[in-house]
Here is the input.
Amino acid sequence: MKPVEIAKGVYDVGVIDWNIRDFHGYSTHLGTSYNAFLIVDEKTVLIDTVKKDFADQMLRNISQIIDPAQIDMVISNHTEMDHSGSLPYIMSRVGADKPLCCSKMGEKNLSRHFSEKFNYQAVSEGDEISLGSRTLTFIETRMLHWPDSMFTYLKEDKILFSSDAFGQHYAGHEEFDDAVGEAIMPHAKKYFANILLLYAPLILKLVDKVTKLGLEFSMICPDHGVLWKNPGKIIEAYAKWSQQEAEQKAVIIYDTMWSSTHKMAMAIADGLHAEGIDVHPMKLRGFDRSDIMTEVLDAKAVIIGSPTLNNGIFPSVADFLTYMKGLKPQNKIGAAFGSYGWSGESVKILEKELSDMKFQMMESGLKHQYVPDETALEKCTAFGKKIGQAIKEKA
Ligand code: FEO
Here is the structure.
């Protein structure tokens, strides 16, 4: 139940969205939360808001602590509507003339989303705002993951309000990571793989910058999911994921019309397994693309299969390739396979797509006309073994 006092005078006044299952195309099997934070000092500050539909619920949470009209300033770390959608309503209750603090780019972006003339106060990296006994400062995190993104840091308490970074789409009554335990990490990994992966080089720079600044964190508070009482754990995971360190693992992502490509996928999986590789066959239309992408994150090899359909590839495979391309996974071995009836273009198309993503390709993909017999399946298993050996050599 919110609000929760997470440190002395610091409250989580956000809301839990138990029912959302599709967050702009990302499958949120357990729902999510929109976290927002209230700091009560000589000045009272609200950091971020929630989705528009939850504005009243958040106001009720705030009202259990103070009258919303007593808030002196609102901070927007990031413009995306799950955190700023209720700003017009909240500002009308807080006081329309109260300062709305954001990055310079935040001011531009917010003013393109809302017609209201808010009292914007743009801040830059290192600016400080005194709340009385405590101080807020700001860290610019452009393109993590919007151009306007920034972090807010409560210096004396060493609490980082990290906007989307370090978040997880997880709905639960647990407030902190230790209440969920290791089970929270797959949610954090999925969030990274689907929201932040393409910005991995920027994350490494940010980790470097924060290290040089000598900032310490007692707690990291993202805008989704649980808060990190053990910041070292999630920072370490982000460093690993950003470096795109892979396991001895392969993902076989495919679709099938009459099961021929499926049979090929299973035989390729046998070959990989025989080489001791952790192999995940994932049929599109059986797995959500965001769950598949989570497995791609730490896989050494990505093997794509598609039948030929109308001289092209299967629509579900094209969908996934478009999605994966945008997220820019790196350091992968790529391979393609598929069955066909007469023209057989799919493997060539898949190989081009994977080459364009700079995957290190197996020299030739595997295609088979109509239904694979035992001999063809043995070839598939040998193909899987060859990929498995390449994975081990690369490790
Ligand atoms: Fe949770 Fe980028 O919004």
